[in-house]
Amino acid sequence: MSLSLYKPLGDNDEVTRLAAAKQLSSELATLLAGERTEQSKSDVDYALKRLTKGIASGRDSARPGFAVVLTEFLASLQADGNAEKWGISLDDAVAAVVKNTAIPGHASGQEERDYWLGRLFGLQSVFQSNVLFINDDTIAEYPAVLDLLFELARKKPWLMESSAWTVAASIPRWPEVVKTKAAEITYAKLVESGLAKTGEGVGILLALQANIPVVAPPKDVWSKGSPLLTGNLVTLARVLKESGAKEEGAKTKGSWNPKLGFVWESLLNVYFSDDEVWKAVKEGKHPVAPWSEFWRVVVDESLFSGSSSEERKFWGFLFFFKSLDRVNAPEDLSIMFSKNLMRCMINQLADAERYLNKAAAKASRTLIAKAEASAWMAPVIFKQLVSNNGTPNFDNLTKTKTVDKVICSADEPGLVQIVGELQNVMLNPLASSPDVEDPTKAAEVRRQWAADQLLSAIRSGKTVKAESWLKKVIELFTTFGYFEVVDKKRKPAIPVSTTSQGMFRARLMSCLTHLISLKEGGGNNDSWPFMAIRTIAGLTEKKNSYKFAIELDDAISEALDKANKSVAKLRKKRATNPDDAQLLSFELLYSLIILQVYNGESDALSVLEDLQSIQEKILKSEKKSKKSKAADEDEGMGMDPSEVLVDILLSFLSKPSMLLKRLAQTVFTSFCGSITRAGLERCFEVLETKEGLDGQASLFDNEDDEEEVGEDEDEDGLDSDVEMISNPDDEEEDSDIEILSASEDENDSDAEAADRNEEEARKLEAALQTVLSAPAGEDSDSDADLDDDAMLELDEKISQIFAKRKQAANKKSQKKEAKELIVNFKTKILELLEIFAKTAPESPLALEVLLPCLVLARSTRDQKLQDRALAVVRTFAHHSKREGVPKILTEDLDRAHELLAFVHEEMAKGGTKARRAACSSASILVCRTIVASDPARFGATAAAYSATMVRWVQDPRLGIDNSFFSDFVGWAGSVRGKLGKEEEEVKEEVVVAVGKGKKEKRKREEVEEAVVEEETKANGNNGGGKKKRRKGKKGGKS
């Protein structure tokens, strides 16, 4: 036998240690199975001595390594008569363990600890080898070994947990022949040692009851022998908390263990294990207490009680985590959110300095993880966090987003349940707290919270957007926003106030903001806004149950009836053609405008009339010939229907509403093919407006300004669909508030304001000196007081100066607000034009978009607006490469040449690199369009470039880059020899050729795709020319 294998048993490397243990165990088994000789007997005795001494060694990992080999050695020693052959009985082996782990008199504290641990490991090896339970002869040694183990537990409380686990873990492995007797011995020794009423003793007792139910436990310790009976729960709670009285036999540990004992796992096995042995314990002769009673007494009123220490509450959180892993029914999960636990969790989460804040934070994360992993848990967790022992303000109090994330984790059935719970809150908002001073105000707050939760779920990109629960939300908001419930069976416990009705209407509009672009609508292919007006129509007919809460005069009622009839006609058309985007857009328009009329929007009624006047003309326009269109214009309307539709959409965009903005974009996308030149001109007029008070006056009436100030004000930002102009850093991903930054020249305006303030300060000082200066005289001195007239004059002068300063400050504020309003409006118009460029790049009117965008990029001082305008040009150029260039008629070619000349003029005015690159792209796009329509006109396009080049050579002040001409040469080379081919073939080859330009071409494309760089010239219009002029002068001197 190799003695060198003993040393590696203490190696810290697990692979080395286990390999040595495996090899040594194999050699010892071979030795024990062989013949007895003096040498072999010596080797066996040495092995027993060395192994029992090794388990007491504190060197590295010696204890686990030697214990593994000792377990295998004892099992081999008692097999096949080896004990008699080698003269080593089980009693001898146990005696060797005791002898070699005895503490010598000179041992230090650490050495003493090593010996106690060595004895524990030695006794564990005896149990794990199962040599005590082979037959009746070996079982006779069991009481003595059990005494040694329990004595160790009593002397060293910090080893009590491990000692008890050694016994409990061995119970399932007991053979049938001895397990009854072994169980009787164990019960007796438990009582004799006084450990029966400890947590560890309960763990052993439960293991015996589960695996050996035929042996009855002693009844003098626990009533009827079961610690889980209802009457024993209070005592069990004290025992598990380790605070039992001495006369009750409870033993307390010398130090606190931050880990839960094995008894808690056994308790969970009793309630939730699928193993038949544990089910027998739960449903035995004396059934255990219900889970609700166990949790209340043993956990909530014990570990989480107000007088419980932080350590015991930490145990409570650990058991809460374990229980979440085992619980398998909603009713059992609900029980766990008990009063004291919820109070402790909320308090600990509220303050990061609290002792158990990390444990409570882990509880929050665990709840979210469980909701994500097990969908059935989400609605249960949500309900318990916000009701019963929880609070609707859970997230606010705890500074977490637990409730929001749990909602997002729910599946479709779970979301339906959550909506049902929030509906109950709306019906009976004070169910959990009926005693409040102001029930109406409290109900308003609670209902607003419930509505906000539903809105948050709709806003979230993680929730499942399914009709089953979204439809219910729309119906809830519509019902409580527009009706008073008079049916006694459905009537809310506290009437819905006018304030709450307005809040529900605002939440409905915010929901529609996020749902309007959602493809899936209600049943029968309904759109979400139509679902709302259909709900209103349906509830209006139920006059015995619902009363409409909004008073309408006869004119409004008549207009609404007419509009509803128009919607009914649209619905019939959609039934035969459900995929018609234009029909859907008109349905959206009608539905949302009808809701605006109900909400009291001042101009909604006029918009409704305009919509009705153009509906038929727009829907039929694409089917009519040009002749019939001209006849329509001559016969009827003074305005083009497309122009009226664009005006309606622009009126939507002029308001700070994200809902109206999305509606306008949706409708515009549907009608891109029907938009006429007059409609586009309406958009261009906005882009040409000055960015200031004059521009505001030209676009908006003063009366409209006053109305807009008072519209859609909402104290709570969560439900608002208002677009705000603010700092972009405050923007939230899920918010329906569009945030635009102020203009780039704020620093300039601030500097001007500072100069004005200094001037006003000088005027104020001069005025004061004039008034305060006393006339020369013998009675006048520096200390003389002013008379009444002088004081009045001073007061009047100061009042005038401060009035002027206030007026100047107000004007400055008005200018800033006006500029932000116009910039915001122009940004929205550019978004429409970008949609047009993407949706209809082949439209004959598409080229008209280029020039207004280039002019705006040059004229505006707002950097973001400039970037947006150039982005429209780049988007148009990009899509034309894939979809093809605009298809213009022969009679429109002259207009295209004029446009090319205008683009060259814009290029000559210089600007940033990005703007010059966009001008070049626009010019090439116009050339491609002209040549695709009439290849013979290539010469005219080349002539335009030639004329521009002549100007560029003659006037170095022109802000034109060399790449402007090289781009044209590159494109011309790509179509060389291909002019005159069929239009589709030319388009295809042009698309391929665009990416094959020269080096300058590639540079230009990189500039187009990159982020816009800072202006490189001092003057945006002619800075480039100045730079070139300086270079020219320098060259002339040389």
From TrEMBL:
Any Gene Ontology biological process: regulation of DNA-templated transcription
Lineage top rank: taxon: Eukaryota
Location relative to the cell: Nucleus
Protein name, as recorded: DNA polymerase phi-domain-containing protein
Family label: Belongs to the MYBBP1A family.
InterPro entries (alphabetical): ARM-type_fold (IPR016024), DNA_pol_V/MYBBP1A (IPR007015)
Keyword flag Zinc: no
Keywords attached to this entry: Nucleus
Pfam families for the chain: DNA_pol_phi
Species the sequence originates in: Sphaerosporella brunnea
Principal subcellular localisation of the protein: nucleus
GO CC annotation: nucleolus
Bias (Acidic residues) ranges: 701-752
Feature: compositional bias, Basic residues: 1025-1038
Disordered: annotated segments: 695-763, 995-1038
Keyword Nucleus included in the entry's annotation: yes
GO MF annotations in UniProt: rDNA binding
Biased segments, Basic and acidic residues type: 753-763
